[in-house]
UniProtKB/TrEMBL annotation:
<protein>
    <recommendedName>
        <fullName>F-box domain containing protein</fullName>
    </recommendedName>
</protein>
<dbReference type="InterPro" id="IPR038883">
    <property type="entry name" value="AN11006-like"/>
</dbReference>
<feature type="region of interest" description="Disordered">
    <location>
        <begin position="1"/>
        <end position="49"/>
    </location>
</feature>
<feature type="region of interest" description="Disordered">
    <location>
        <begin position="105"/>
        <end position="126"/>
    </location>
</feature>
<feature type="compositionally biased region" description="Low complexity">
    <location>
        <begin position="30"/>
        <end position="49"/>
    </location>
</feature>
């Protein structure tokens, strides 16, 4: 088969004439009709296209009169508006030079210092919004605001995986300015309890850099309370649980109270075979002694623990003996229910009166030999059983 080929039609473009080397002098032509004079159309705009034939209209050089009031070249672009575009309204808002006044006045609106609007009604000037300055508040109110800001954080701070979500995001407030940094950081470190050795299971439990070692001198000096939690690692404490210089305990000059929380009594019978008798008691008392030796201004030790821990168990007796050697004041926390003279009610009931709690016993008839309750004797020493 033979393919048919079609030829495209060629478009013939006309050739444009080029100007000669020099324009020839035009021949003056006298028009048959007379052209109107310039006085007939005073506002006629001269043509922008030059012509070789002289025109009867007035040229730009010949027009020496004042400029027109409504010439578009004399109106600024910012003053142009579609409202009140009539010549009568525009003439009222022009000055002597033909320029427009304020755009608000041209539109009939109230200016910044005006008192009337387009309807002639009174209108108060709008006040500019001034931003609120936080540092203009008294320091007492700023401290209360810091308390609301850190309210959701835990009262006891330890090395945990949740610190980035709970603590770090709250501490971003310290990046505001130097004044906020000093006030907010002092409030945070002075109102929270910081754990000396981490107890969260995992990599933080055996870390070589406890929480105090990760803080600077200024942050440690603002602390007022530390906590020593005993019980984890009762069979093999971590090697990092030792008082070293990097802890910076000597820099904790404002620490007055150390909380000692006992989670577990290692002398219970169900732990036989999992621990060495007397090891953890000796380790705990020695660790507390080293901490109290390093702290320069501590004066109070607060004991607390879980309800299952007895007040007269071996580990508690060892810790109390260490505190007595340093001649410090002893207080009791609210978790266990211990008091200065008694154990908690749960231990007294489970041990049938065992402990240092006060036990009231009726030993016989009264002094008159009559039937009734006899004299009351209070025992402060341990009592194994009561008949």
């Amino acid at each position: 088969m033979v393919k048919k080929t079609t030829k495209k039609a060629q478009v013939v473009r006309p050739r444009l004439s080029r100007p000669n080397a020099g324009p020839s002098a035009p021949t003056p032509v006298v028009p048959a009709l007379t052209t109107p004079s310039s006085s007939a159309f005073p506002s006629a705009v001269p043509s922008a296209v030059p012509s070789a034939i002289p025109s009867a209209y007035a040229s730009e050089d010949e027009d020496d009169g004042p400029p027109a009031k409504f010439d578009a070249r004399t109106i600024p672009m910012a003053k142009l508006t579609l409202e009140n575009a009539s010549p009568e309204a525009g003439a009222e808002n022009q000055n002597a030079n033909g320029e427009f006044k304020d755009a608000a006045a041209a539109n009939g609106e109230t200016s910044e210092n005006g008192e009337t609007d387009a309807d002639g009604k009174g209108k108060e000037p709008e006040e500019s919004i001034v931003p609120f300055r936080f540092l203009d508040l008294p320091s007492e109110l700023r401290v209360k605001i810091y308390g609301y800001h850190f309210e959701s954080t835990d009262p006891v701070t330890d090395l945990t995986p949740d610190n980035y979500r709970k603590v770090f995001r709250k501490l971003l407030l310290l990046r505001t300015c130097r004044t906020v940094y000093q006030e907010a950081s002092y409030y945070f470190y002075s109102s929270h309890i910081f754990r000396i050795f981490p107890t969260h299971p995992g990599r933080f439990f055996k870390t070589r850099r406890p929480l105090l070692a990760r803080l600077n001198k200024g942050q440690r000096s603002a602390m007022t309370r530390l906590e020593l939690r005993l019980g984890p690692g009762f069979n093999k404490p971590p090697k990092c649980w030792v008082v070293q210089r990097k802890l910076g305990l000597k820099e904790c000059v404002n620490v007055r109270t150390v909380n000692v929380f006992v989670q577990l009594d290692p002398s219970v019978s169900w732990l036989d075979g999992f621990r060495k008798a007397g090891f953890y008691e000796t380790f705990s008392s020695s660790l507390l002694n080293d901490i109290l030796t390093e702290l320069p201004n501590v004066d109070t030790i607060e004991f607390d623990g879980y309800e299952s821990v007895r007040k007269n168990c071996p580990i508690m007796e060892a810790l109390q003996q260490t505190v007595r050697e340093h001649k410090l004041r002893v207080t009791w926390g609210p978790k266990n229910g211990w008091t200065e003279t008694s154990d908690n009610a749960t231990n007294v009931k489970l041990n049938n009166g065992a402990g240092t709690g006060k036990v009231i016993i009726n030993i016989g008839p009264n002094a008159e030999g009559m039937i009734g309750p006899g004299p009351i004797i209070t025992y402060d020493s341990p009592i194994m059983s009561v008949a």
